[in-house]
């Protein structure tokens, strides 16, 4: 794996030792098409605005002829550039994955550039995951967008309109009416406030190689369960086995894709994914990429807009 650095703190060039698809690898970090902290440009570049341990930073990543070039701005620029390979899956081991189903084999073959990213940042994935608890994706995306626009800060550098998420103290001081304005009920708001009050301890989970221990660390916070912990660690730790349980749709998608039948519970999904032990999250990502969905038999889940209550 070759890498060079020029203009420390500003630009880094890095050449991965295998195919890398930027959109597939970094796509899970986006929280809706209007995410103020994430942007995919028409030229194929990916922009991220993050709150790092060194402060806010903006990262722009481009890919050409197998080489990666990243430019960063702000106090967090050096931190972001130092961790560029990890972010892009350098610590991921896709070779450990062995397809056990024809569908999975075919999707795996078609997407050799898929890597599991590792941000090294817990709160920036934990808070959106809490916002997504038991609501529609559109509701959660809207809440994240409004909260960042209202309480975040402008992202460093030239990315007009991008925002860095608030620091922990700012999250903790958001008044109840502002949560309500964003459509966030009291339970989810209280979970976020409890989490940011112990932000330093939660961020330590990003450096824990034992993902079960990291999940246990997150779940010490009331309101954070297995679903939220898995959704967070998939991104912060690049955890290949952090399968999401408690999801409304995933068991049905996995069951239908692998058997042609609907599976409505986590137990059935985990049984089907047992051959992928150690790589169940990667297997689920590939199954979702296949696009094979069960026929809809019930009305779409209706949004519950608490702002009109």
TrEMBL record:
The keyword GTP-binding does not apply. Transmembrane segments: none annotated. It comes from the Bacteria. Coiled coil: none annotated. InterPro entries: Alkylbase_DNA_Glycosylase/TA, DNA_glycosylase. Keywords: DNA damage, DNA repair. SUPFAM superfamilies: DNA-glycosylase (SSF48150). This is DNA-3-methyladenine glycosylase 2 family protein. It comes from Streptomyces humicola.
């Amino acid at each position: 794996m070759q890498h060079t650095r020029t203009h420390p703190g500003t630009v880094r060039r890095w050449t991965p030792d295998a195919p890398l698809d930027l959109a597939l690898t970094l796509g899970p970090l986006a929280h809706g098409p209007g995410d103020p902290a994430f942007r995919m440009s028409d030229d194929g570049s990916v922009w991220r605005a993050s709150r790092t341990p060194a402060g806010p930073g903006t990262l722009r990543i481009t890919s050409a002829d197998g080489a990666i070039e990243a430019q960063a701005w702000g106090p967090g620029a050096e931190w972001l550039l130092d961790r560029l390979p990890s972010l892009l899956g350098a610590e991921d081991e896709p070779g450990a994955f062995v397809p056990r189903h024809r569908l999975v084999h075919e999707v795996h073959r078609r997407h050799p550039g898929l890597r599991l990213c590792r941000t090294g940042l817990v709160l920036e994935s934990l808070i959106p995951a809490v916002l997504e608890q038991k609501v529609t994706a559109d509701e959660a995306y809207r809440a994240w967008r409004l909260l960042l626009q209202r309480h975040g800060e402008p992202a460093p550098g030239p990315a007009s309109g991008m925002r860095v998420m608030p620091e922990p103290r700012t999250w903790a001081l958001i008044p109840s009416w502002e949560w309500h304005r964003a459509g966030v009920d009291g339970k989810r708001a209280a979970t976020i406030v409890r989490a940011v009050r112990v932000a330093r301890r939660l961020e330590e989970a990003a450096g824990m190689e034992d993902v079960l221990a990291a999940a246990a660390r997150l779940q010490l916070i009331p309101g954070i369960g297995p679903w939220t912990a898995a959704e967070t660690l998939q991104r912060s730790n690049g955890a290949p086995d952090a399968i999401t349980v408690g999801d409304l749709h995933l068991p049905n998608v996995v069951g239908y894709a692998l058997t042609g039948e609907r599976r409505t519970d986590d137990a059935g999904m985990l049984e089907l994914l047992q051959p992928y032990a150690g790589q169940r999250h990667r297997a689920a990502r590939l199954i979702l990429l296949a696009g094979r969905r069960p026929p809809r038999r019930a009305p779409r889940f209706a949004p519950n807009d608490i702002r009109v209550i």
